Amino acid sequence: MLLPYHHLKNLEAGTDEAGRGCLAGPVTAAALILPDTFKNALLNDSKQLSHTKREILRPLIESEALCYGVVHVYPEEIDQINILNASILAMHRALKKLIVSPQFIIVDGHKFKPFSNIPHECIIKGDGKYMSIAAASVLAKTHRDAYMEKIHEEFPMYNWKKNKGYPTKEHREAIIKYGISPYHRKSFRLLPEQLSLEL
Known about the structure:
Layout (H helix, E strand, L loop, with lengths): L11 E7 L8 E7 L17 H14 L2 E7 L1 H7 L1 H14 L7 E5 L11 E4 L7 H22 L7 H4 L5 H10 L21
Parallel strand pairs: 1-4, 4-5
Antiparallel strand pairs: 1-2, 2-3
Helix pairs in contact: 1-4, 2-3
Protein name: Ribonuclease HII
Pfam families: RNase_HII
Main location: cytoplasm
């Protein structure tokens, strides 16, 4: 059962990212503020939800949130600043998009950098505990999936429509066969050592 967080009844934003462990595509973050009255029985940690349930939830969350922001940080920037910094940057940029300024921020995971002097708390597995983080998780995942499905049309050989850029056996085999695309993260170990690739 997911709970509202309610830090001293402050206006709270939840934020989360998707795609951190992928070999290709952006890391995508969402931030949002839900109204106190928000309830949805379907909503849970987006990793526990089926694709269909996430797609049903996305428009409901977007229409009921007081405000939300979703941001992609692309491979070129990930390669420059590393994936952890890129994930935090994506969350900061998503928070910047909120038209209502939060008084408190709750973040999924254990790493974050202060944003605009607003107090925050990192919550391990927060997307399975608190509604605003779970809702942000659904938005990040669905927006990123849609992007990966779009770039799949350009490079169908990697099957991003199915693997979404994650390091599946099929994705790695396609990298061996076709090399890398402009959407791959060059700073990531794209293949295990014994299958090293000339970049």
